[in-house]
Amino acid sequence: MPIFHKFQSFAALREDLTQVATNPFNIIIEQVLSETEAIINGRRTILAGTNNYLGLTFDPRCIAAGRKALEEQGTGTTGSRMANGTYAGHLALEQEIADFFDSPTAIVFSTGYIANLAILSTIPGAKDVILLDADSHASIYDGCRLGSAEVIRFRHNDPADLDKRLARLGERASSVLIVVEGIYSMIGDQAPLQDIVAIKRKYGAYLMVDEAHSLGVLGEHGRGLAEQAGVEQEVDFIVGTFSKSLGAIGGFCVSRWPEIEHVRYAMRPYIFTASSSPSIIASTRVALGILREQGAELRQQLWDNAHRLYLGLHNLGLVLGPETSPVVAVTLGKSKEHALKVWHELLDRGVYVNLVMPPATPTASCLLRCSLSAAHTPLQIDAIVETFGALRDELQDC
Ligand SMILES: Cc1ncc(COP(=O)(O)O)c(C=O)c1O
After folding, report:
1. What does the DSSP assignment read for 278-334?
2. Active-site residue, 336 included
3. Cα–Cα distance, 3 to 62 (Å, whole number)
4. From first to last of its 398 residues, what are the pLDDT tens digits of the chain?
5. Is 255 noted as a catalytic residue in this protein?
6. Contacts from 31-34 at CB under 8 Å and sequence distance 24+?
7. Cis peptide before 359 (omega within 30 of 0)
8. Cα 201 to Cα 21, 125, 166, 302, 310, distances in angstroms
9. Which listed residue (244, 276, 283, 365) is catalytic?
10. Measuring from atom 3 of ligand 1, which residue has the nearest CA?
11. What is the structure's pLDDT at 398?
């Protein structure tokens, strides 16, 4: 079967994974108990590897809105936004997102992945250049691949490298789209956005910030890193997702350029997929309202949890990301077998975290990635730290 030959390395990995009791890349949540707990392998487990930052997945207001929409509008739209898939709720959500960001317009997509595909494959054309941070999310890379712009990477969070590459482009620099993320999903570090904006201005380039992990998490009003850094007016495109702090699924783009509306019907990933179900739209609208009304309180709880976990793991002598963040990643060594073993022992002790292995990691090391929620209690955070503590020797051995 020649077309399958190239998957030999996956076959080997799959074979290795059959040797362990639980495959970390096929974990089964047998029962969801709450925002922070589930039954996995028959035991009560703390979920420390979800992106449920504000803990809204069980908010009764979101559930009630989703249920009402389900009953009144059915299970799905069965069509693209461009055909029969734009309901009043989709437009209302777009208006609410635009208002939240004080932007002239917003476009809602079926996922955050699709939002990145749509924007990056359509707006920069064949004569334009995308300059992206090397540690960008796969959806950013895939959006570039789907389009026709030239793609150049700059070193992760390195404004000097960005500057150098823009300088090399000469006159073409003014049609460059720089792409960065608010919080990077692997080790929770933030983009040096003020420096990046200064460089963008120097060359007259455009800037897109993917706030997938920073919406609801950063900024006085929860609008993300651009708000926190005081540079919202300088950001041309903000992309985000509903699948993290808003507890649902979907994506969006806001832009200070009203011209983005002309692009709506040119974006293949917008046109050629079904729109989000009415229940998703309804729960997201309520979640966005909660973010607006109660976001500050939830953000405080989230950051209290982040500080508690970061400090606890730091005190154990573990190697963490460079700054406190709701994403706290423990860096291990290069041995995948060892990383798998430690991950498994955490799970056996009732703590689920994400195991991330190269090439998905920024370096050749494996990561145990924790991501926190405002809904975690201090007791749960302490239990996570204690569980890591019980495995300290093994963790340092990796
Ligand atoms: C930085 C970033 N952008 C985009 C996405 C895609 O979001 P979604 O889950 O809505 O497809 C993710 C998902 O993890 C992400 O981390």
Report:
1. HHHHHHHHHHHHHHHHHHHHHHHHHHHHHHHHHHHHHHTT----SS--SEEEEE--S
2. no
3. 45
4. 788 888 887 787 777 777 777 888 889 999 999 999 999 999 999 999 999 999 999 999 999 999 999 999 999 999 999 999 999 999 999 999 999 999 999 999 999 999 999 999 999 999 999 999 999 999 999 999 999 999 999 999 999 999 999 999 999 999 999 999 999 999 999 999 999 999 999 999 999 999 999 999 999 999 999 999 999 999 999 999 999 999 999 999 999 999 999 999 999 999 999 999 999 999 999 999 999 999 999 999 999 999 999 999 999 999 999 999 999 999 998 888 889 999 999 999 999 999 999 888 888 899 999 999 999 999 999 999 999 999 988 887 66
5. no
6. 34/58, 34/375
7. yes
8. 53, 21, 11, 34, 35
9. 244
10. 212
11. 61
What are the counts of helices (DSSP H) followed by strands (DSSP E) for the chain? Answer: 14, 14
Residue 270 CB: number of other CB atoms within 10 A?
25
Most informative mutation of 180, 183, 241 for ligand 1 (most atoms within 8 A of CB): 241
171 C-alpha vs ligand 1 centroid, how far in Å? 33
Task: Report the separation in Å between the CA atom of 212 and the middle of ligand 1, taken as the mean of its atom positions.
Answer: 6
> Which is the catalytic residue, given 185, 243, 279, 283?
185
What ligand 1 atom has the least distance to the C-alpha of 139?
4
In terms of phi and psi (left: phi > 0; alpha: psi -120 to 50; beta: otherwise), the region of 302 is: alpha
Which of 184, 243, 356 most suits a substitution to test ligand 1, by most atoms within 8 Å of the C-beta? 243
List ligand 1's pocket residues with C-beta within 6 A: 111-113, 116, 137, 139, 181, 185, 210, 212-213, 241, 243, 251
Length of the chain measured in residues: 398
Strands 105-109 and 251-255: antiparallel
Whether 338 is a known active-site residue: answer no
pLDDT tens column, 335-354 = 888 899 999 999 999 999 99
The CA 280 to ligand 1 mean position distance, Å, reads 17
Distance CA 317, CA 339 (A): 17
The alpha carbon of 225 and the centre of ligand 1 are apart by a number of angstroms equal to 16
DSSP-derived secondary structure for 350-382: TEE-EEE-TTSSSSSS-EEEEE--TT--HHHHH
Distance in Å, CA 36 to ligand 1 centroid? 20
| pTM reported for the whole predicted model | 0.96
